[in-house]
Amino acid sequence: MADVEIIFEPDKQTGLVAVGTYILDAAERLGVQVPAECGRLGKCDSCKVKILSGVELLSEPTKMEIQHLTLEKVRSEGERLACQTKIVKSGEVIVMTFEQKKEEPKETSFEKFRKEFYDMPLDKKVAYLVELEAITLGETLAFVLNSPFKIFDALIDAMAEFGLKLERQEKEMKTPTEHREEKKSNHETSVDSETAEQTGEEAKQEVENTEGSNPISEDSKIVNERKAE
Q1: Which of 67, 97, 127 is at the close of a domain?
Q2: pLDDT tens-digit map of 86-134
C-alpha cells in the first residue's frame, strides 16, 4: 500500500500515513490536536483545516462539508473538515490547523460573592451578617443552599461572628458614658449581692452542722430528762 507524507502546520509535524487515511486520523497519529466535537459525524466545523498543498490527493467534498463550510470556501480557500476528508492518492499533503479558542475561566459564585461583599459598606455587611445569624441553623442551611452565592457554612459562621462583634462595639460606642458606668455599677452590685447571699447560706449551713454534732448538747438533754423523772 502506498504511503503519503503529511505535514501539519504551524508546528511542522511530519509523518507517513497510508492511502485511505482520514486527515483527522493522521493528525491523531502524529499527536496534532484537532477537535471533533460532533464525534466525527460531520455535524459541526470544529475539525476545520486548510489544505495548503496536495488538494488533488484528497477525496471530493462531502455534503456535510459543503453545508458547514460552503462550496466556495472548499474550492477557493482549501478549507476541509478533517473528519470527512480522506487521502486517496500518494504524494505530499500539507495541512494548516486553526488555533483553538481557549475558554476563559468562569468566575465562580463564591469569588463573585467575595468581591461584592468586599465592596459593601460596613453597615450593609453588618446587616447582612446579622440577618444570617438571626436565622435558625436549619433555615440557615436552606438559605445558603438557595442563595445565589453558595457560601460555605464555615465562612458564614466566621463572618457572622465578626459582624455581630462589630455591631456590639458600634452600639457600645453610641451609649452615653454615664449609662455605661451605671450599667457597670449595677452589674458589680448584683455580683456583690449574689456573693453575700451565698456567703450567708454557707455560714448558716455551717452552724446547723455544728449544732447537730455537738456532744455537750446531747449530755445536757439526758441530764434534764433524768431530773424530770
Answers
A1: 97
A2: 999 999 999 999 876 555 556 566 667 677 767 777 777 667 666 666 5
Residue 118 located in a structural domain: yes
H/E segment holding residue 222: helix 215-228
Question: Cα–chain-centroid distance for residue 2?
Answer: 55
Q: How many CB atoms lie within 10 A of CB 3?
A: 14
Asked if the structure places residue 223 within a domain, the reply is no
Q: Decide: 150 and 109 in contact? Cβ < 8 Å.
A: yes
Residue 37 and residue 80 in one domain: yes
CA–CA distance, 217 with 146 (Å, rounded to integer): 77
* Global model pTM greater than 0.90: no
Side chain identity, residue 16: L
pLDDT digits (tens, 9 = 90+) for 139-168: 555 555 555 444 445 555 556 666 666 667
Whose cell is 441530764? That residue is 223
Distance CA 34, CA 49 (A): 9
Residue 95 · residue 52 · CB < 8 Å: yes
Do 60 and 10 share a domain, yes or no?
Answer: yes
Q: Are 117 and 109 in contact (CB under 8 A)?
A: no
- The verdict on residue 55 lying in a domain is yes
Class of residue 81 by CB neighbours under 10 A (exposed 0-12, middle 13-18, buried 19+): buried
